[in-house]
Specification:
Structural class: alpha+beta
Low-confidence stretches: 523-531
Strand order of the largest sheet: 14-13-18-19-17
Number of helices: 24
Largest sheet: 5 strands, antiparallel
Number of strands: 19
Oligomer: single chain
Length: 689
Amino acid sequence: MSAPKVPLGLSGHLARAFVTSPITPLLLIAALVAGAIALFALPREEEPQISVPMVDIFVEANGLRAEDAVELVTKPLEDIVKGIKEVEHVYSQTRDDRVVVTARFYVGTSEDDAILRVHERLRAHFDRIPVGIPEPLAVKRGINDVPILTLTLSPRPGLPPDVLARWDDNALYDIAEEVLNELVKTENVGLTFIVGGRPDQIRIEPDPERMALLGVTLEQLVEKVRNANRQFLMGRIRERDASIEILGGQTLKGVPDIGLLLITTRDGRPVYVKDVADIVVGGRESLDRVWQLLPDGHEGLVRLPAVTIAIAKREGANAVTVAHELLARLDTLYGRLIPDDVRVEVTRNYGETASEKADELLFHLFLATLSIVLIIALFVGLREAYVVLWTIPVTILLTFFASWVTGYTINRVSLFALIFSIGILVDDAIVFIENIARHWRMEPRGNPVEIAVRAVAEVGNPTIVATLTVVAALLPMLFVSGLMGPYMEPIPVNASAAMLFSFFVAVIIAPWLRVKLGRPKKEEAGEPVAEEGITRLGLLYMRIAPFFYRTRRRALLFLLLVGFATLASMALFYTRHVTVKLLPFDNKSELQVVVDLPEGSTLEATERTLFAMAEALADLPELKSIQLYAGTSAPFNFNGLVRHYYIRRSPELGDLYIVLTPKAERERTSHEIALDVRERVNRVPVPEG
């Protein structure tokens, strides 16, 4: 009896074209190679790269109280900025003598376009700013400015007191500057800055008594010093066949030159700067302080002065590679720029954590693939499982290649999309190879190639519809607005790409590979050939399933039970027995406590409060170290970028940056530790207000 003729359709034609073609193994090899290259070349990051450009406009409004600055500076600036294309929100902060206006652009706007538009609009409408106000300073901040690596320099604990006294924040800052100058030579380094420390400066301290005695005013002294260190080109002269530049003014070459600046004369006697002021060379006055707090092993903390180096990467660079190269270069600086008495702690390494998360998710991806292959081997057959063992990696590698070409990165969201879709993308291959096996059992003496093509064609159209249905269900996530839109974008893109690749792999690679493996021998098959190729598992299902729909009453009762179970499971969300979150809590190795004391509080009061909070955390089992930032903020993360923590510079503001032991070495998650930290900190007495 001849087999019924089945229209081939798209699936059948593709299967017939490639099932015996010599090109098919070449396509398989090309897919594996391209995917492997993409897997190693794709940048690895903790989070998806979201373009949320924010431009801060700083204005020095000297002499204006906050109420006057709002009317004269803030409101005109807000009106100017609101008219810029793609500006979503405008925020402002006005205090005595200064104004900050922030323009937040729509998600996805180019960061370079954003800063250019702000500069153009400010220059075009600067006439709306009162006379005497200096030109505003516009500073762009984006996701690529978030430091991926922070290094905290401090003296080694246990040094003799006289040695420890030499390593104050001024000496540490000098070392940090030299270290940073070397680290920026690393490829793909972006924004860099130093938090804490006191840079060297030459300070001129006027003596009011001597100034009054010699009749010198403060304005005279300031004007003389301001104009002294100035040199400019006046022109050129030609002499003896040579062209010589003529320079006017002078540049100061040392501290003695400053003291010998002539201010005026008094009773025919010259009055110099050194006569009315003291010239001091040393560290800048303390506007902020940074401390390194280390557990002493007795539920206490060792306090050490510190400075922190923060380093970001360039856009599109691999965080793992950049962080590794920076640390490798840092190792070469020990003993050369970093003395033995100075300790360097890596307090943040997003390259390492990104690699750990990517490796962990790839491992789970491998486990998911292995479990599916074992299920196929158990219930369908070993040869079919072998085919699936090839089709899943090929599909995933092709998806990585598509992500590489389209500019996506490997992060926890993109890998979550693959893990989420792996159970779906294997369906196409399973449907095709199972139908091929069924037709081979039904026609044991037919041409295996023709039977395989016919089997693929038989289920091809429904498989195409099913694949497109899944893609259609995922694509609406692309149109989510706001910050979550680009954050979740890798899910529909990667999952949809995986589904489309899975179809073509299933219709091209799977039949070819299944035909190459051949039919199982009758003695190896171990399964009876039943009507229409139904296997033992199918026969078992046919025996059990009729029990639930044999009578109308029984079917209705079964339907009601399923409906009740569905509603009962949904009720768990309402009762909060099942917590609903967009993404699971991330188990990080860092926590941050942000402290805002009442306005007008001193730096010392902020420091005392932070020390008290740190002491409350001294016996935390998972504690590795604490960095205390008084009067400034810790190096910002993505949350700090959105909340503008990087402009927190005032005596009443401070942070505790808590570094935990690696997650493999602790039992509690960072979320559980954070709840404990919050409870401990809330018990610490703080100033009123």
